[in-house]
Amino acid sequence: MKTKILLVGIDGLILQTALNSGRAPMLKSLKDSGHFTGLAMDTPTLSGPGWSTLLTGSTHAQHAVVDNRFSGHNLLYRPDLLSRAYYQDQSTTTFAAAGWPPLVDPAGVGPVIHERREQARANLHRVIARDGETYGYERVDAEIATVAVFAMEKFGPDVSFVYFCDADEAGHSYGVVGSQYIEAIGRVDSYLTRLHDAIEQRVGRYKEEWLVVLTTDHGHVDEGGHGSDSPQERASFVIAKGMGRDNPNWPANFAPEDLVSLILDERA
Fold this sequence. Notes:
The protein is α/β, with parallel strands linked by helices. Helix content is about 45%, strand content about 15%.
């Protein structure tokens, strides 16, 4: 039985702030019981380049995403984690849900996650795209969580990517040292708890093996915002927790572009 993968992207999360807040018990539990690696993201510390690297296993030079406009990107030739898993084994089912359109919406400037229409028609690939830029991420993240939990419970996709941006939006609007950022972290942690519980039920019911991986694309300066090369803006992490199996034996240190290959090796 191959390990099933759930990669959760939490945009703009300062991990230590979350852990110290007391509002992220699931995040703390996963870190304490799983594999942990701190990452340093390349500059510019923006979501477009950051997620393109983390999701495709490519450097900035390789994917050519330099900002959030995605002008002149090379993503067509840099397949994402879900696509690469499918190319390895064409029975693989994949799922993605995100509220930032460039990640998953084919009508937007990306998408980083390839559309793969043929697999979608065959029910091998499901994509849920919402627009948090228009409707706000507090609302949209709640919708993403609900549909993602349903997908985990009902379908148990082989490789999934689920993305939350509520904390990043709060950081931009209010900074990262006030209560609004902490409240957003608490909401995201509640979504992690629901996803974790859904997977735990599948592990018990079907004896499946799962690997839950968490990461972020960048941090923030205290007053909110990112893009430069300060340590807090470049700070990212990887938490990887085995469920129904051992934690992965990953290096203590690796580069952001190494994450996809490490995950795929767990499926081999």
